[in-house]
Write a structure and sequence with these properties.
The chain is built from 1 helix and 4 strands. It is mostly beta strands. Strands 2-1-4-3 form a 4-stranded antiparallel β-sheet, with no helix packed on it. Strand 1 and strand 2 form a beta hairpin.
Length: 65
Amino acid sequence: MFITNILLKKAKSKNVLVLMESAVSGHQFMKIRERLADKLEMIRFDPYIQRNSLYKERKRVRSLN
């Protein structure tokens, strides 16, 4: 292996941008999490139904630095 191959490799990002979606109404927003962490689940205010609801991670959108 050449030394140039080692120097040109990109480092993996530490954070990723993920799409969070409400389990009740389908309201969506973006959230940043660590790349190696588990999928996110959180309770947050849902403006569509005017109550707190469960939000689950739907998909990874992109990597961040």
